């Protein structure tokens, strides 16, 4: 396969590296900023461009990894003149049907559900990838390609994928925000965030074996008002954290398996 | 050392097992319900009681692992007639000074910061333990004992420990509540929670190498209103989750390292 990467952000960077490792050939990187395109293209040993009209027309697969908001306006321009290829986007929240607004004939979705930062390479093989395609034959081709990159390949329709993305925001993005709040509180009392890592790891490991409801611990599940009120008092000067504390404690109490 | 365990809950269960493994002798388990005391005592090969007056008087160390709320009223009764021993409690949010309301002479705090469930044994050696003691000599003795159980032993005063506990509630208890919300959303769309585990693991692993602020990803950090509004619309029938979504997205946006 001759693959063009449309995008040079966190996901494109990690995906490009994984493709290279799997022995695939990335022939070009496009980004709206030439510098980003060149930075990624350099690591992949291919050419870079920031101009849509310079995107190769002979790739067999175009993988679009751009910010969701630009897809509706950009996809038709990208596909035009490149209709023979397979087109996939990588966005959890964008339905398959977005391709119907373009002249693409064979199209799909390749959604790797993971948190990507340029500063950290992830092992792509552990990332669940969710696929959707314009027809059954293409779905099989995408499955084969995805299986070269990941051990966990699933088929999910656009509705399921929207909820996958939403669930991932809770389990990953919001979880990381809580880590940030924890770090903020520790810093203010001269305690390094590192002391929290064993607890963070165990909290994640635990839900491999117990459901989150079974795994729940802490003052809110015991509804230990004594501790909760004292902790709220410690957050007197932190109105945001106070609100988070109240909201999440209420939720834990409400959804408690123990009840009452 | 001849150790008596006062309490038979999640922490006492895990601590008892760790003590046994470290070659320490637990001579008795007390719990307010005999059944709980017996269950733990059986695994430790010692006797059980649910009556304070039957608690042994010749232990050298009493470890109190009870619900915070009962400590003020129960500690004086427990210590009475057992003043020669060392007394420690295990509660993050209870200050050292609580012992001043008792007749204890040598007392301290042994706070293992971890999430304990009876259904899951944890490796105690990886758990950070925070110590405080009534005098320097006792602190050294507690350090030695703690070092047999854990690789990470710290000294923390009561004020620091209160904030450790509070930070742990954010990084562990509230994080687990988010896992629960994620599971709830997935279930409703026929998707097994297992697909989320690689993302949960990577989110936890990432903050070993990047600070939470650096590690943040997702629609809120990009302030992608398009995705955020669509996701809020998916939560139309979930007022609790909607509130959590709005509050945490705002926080991520506000504390963003990238800015505006």
Give the class-level CATH name of the largest domain in chain A: Alpha Beta
Radius of gyration of chain A: 22 Å
In the CATH hierarchy, the third-tier topology of the largest domain in chain A is known as: Rossmann fold
Largest interface, with counts of residues having CB < 8 Å to the other chain, equals:
A-B, 97 and 97 residues
Main structural class of chain A: alpha/beta
Helix content of chain A: 40-55%
SSE diagram, text form:
The structure is a homodimer of 260-residue chains.
Chain A: E1 2-6, H1 10-21, E2 25-30, H2 34-44, E3 47-49, E4 61-64, H3 71-79, E5 86-89, E6 106-112, E7 129-133, H4 136-149, E8 153-155, H5 158-187, H6 197-206, H7 212-215, H8 219-222, H9 225-234, H10 239-254
Parallel strand pairs in A: 1-2, 1-4, 2-3, 4-5, 5-6, 7-8
Antiparallel strand pairs in A: 6-7
What does this entry look like structurally?
2 copies of one chain form a homodimer. Chain A is 46% helix and 14% strand. The first copy, chain A, is of the alpha/beta class and 260 residues long. Chain A folds into 2 domains: 2-156, 3-Layer(aba) Sandwich (Rossmann fold); 162-254, Orthogonal Bundle (N-(1-d-carboxylethyl)-l-norvaline Dehydrogenase, domain 2). Chain A has an 8-stranded mixed sheet with strand order 3-2-1-4-5-6-7-8, with helices on one face. In chain A, helix 2 links the parallel strand 2 (25-30) and strand 3. Chain A starts with a strand and ends in a 6-residue tail after the last helix. Chains A and B meet through helix 5, helix 6, helix 7, helix 8 and helix 9 of A and helix 5, helix 6, helix 7, helix 8 and helix 9 of B.
